[in-house]
From TrEMBL:
Record-annotated AMP-binding enzyme C-terminal domain positions: 361-435
Residue ranges of domain AMP-dependent synthetase/ligase in the record: 9-89, 110-310
GO molecular function: acid-thiol ligase activity
Annotated protein name in UniProt: Long-chain fatty acid--CoA ligase
PROSITE patterns given in the database record: AMP_BINDING
Keywords annotated in UniProt: Ligase
Amino acid sequence: MLDVLGAAADRPVFEHGTRVVTGDELLDLIARIANGLRANGLGPGDGVALLQGVHPEAFATILAAHVVGARVVGVRPGLTEAQVEHLLGLDIKLVVRDADDLVRAAPEPLHCSGNPDDIARLIHTSGSTGAPKACAQTYASMTNAWTARPSAWPPAIRDLATRLDRYLVFGSLSSQVMFEYAILTLTAGGTIVVADNPADAITRHRATARVITVPGLAKLVAAQRHSPADLSTLRALLVSGSPLTAERHREALDVLGPVLFHGYGQTETGMISMATPSDPPGTVGKPPVDVEIRAGELFVRTPGQASAYWANPEESAEVFVDGWVRTRDLGHVDADGHLHLTGRARDVVIVNANLHYLGPIEHVIAEHPDVAEAYAVAVPDDDTGEAVHAFVVPKGDRVPELAELQRLVTGRLGAACAPVRVTAISEPPVAPSGKPDKRQLTA
């Protein structure tokens, strides 16, 4: 990335409102912040937590922390206070809230201090267990990823790279998806554009590309049908977070044109596959040649995958198996090489593109004094993609109100995990194995 920015020189690479930052200016900022981090005693292997917004200094701080060889933990908005406290307890030496405190007047020449086997970053999952799992990626793994290396770009990324002239960033740079596409944009010669409000940002910022969730895509398609906006600059919608049905895919292509890039990946793996506008709707494209896949319950190997969950050997052993990552998704590759996702082998709900495990939600609901047993299932939701529907077996005659359960779950796990509906049942349906049959509850 330092080479990419050096080559950019006086070309604009970051735009935030009226402020435009060139490659040379961003490189200088990285050097000054790296000097500040070192002055604060941060070096190879040390943990640094970044609680920042979306602006050039925040982006520069991430890169500067990697320059000094630190273990970077980004803290995204929307976590509960307890979850933030957990992240800040992951062997953190320095917490950065304002990069201005780190900028030094006279930067030393840039030199990268990281060691290949050191952990470069902890990318945390949604935190539905109450404590977000941190996927540990080494500097060697981050180096092996293709994002900043055009010679290693798979065909889908080569196509996408031509469309990243003005890429919108919003929400949080600690989002793996948001950050990786930003790196790709700079490598492709484009400009990162900050959108404080992404609602009409394509038109307002003349954007050519942005990340969007499946529910967000559905709303955009409906809005374009009803009251079309000027999306003439748009060349790439980066759909992520949950599966896109063939019907929704076709509808979006029909209304928006050939701009859909549907990525499939996980925090643990990075990108596994990506469908371009020319790939068949209902697939997630053809996996790159350096991504290995075992079909059925999908196990994958990617160049830039994580190596483990930080300080979590039990769950690491379940997911990171003999060099493979167990996705807990179901799928197959067809005769033409396209990957089809057919379901999930894990008990989860995906709300606004964030994955949450249903087990912890059930445990919290079961703590309510009027609940004997609790079950939670994922149901389709027009606003969030999926949402939680709770089934409770009452202890007596009283069924707890939905609002009570929402407050209980929100306080412990966050609002995304709160049920949107609750149904009282006398007992759960049972599968032939004797276990509660959630498929019947979902139906």
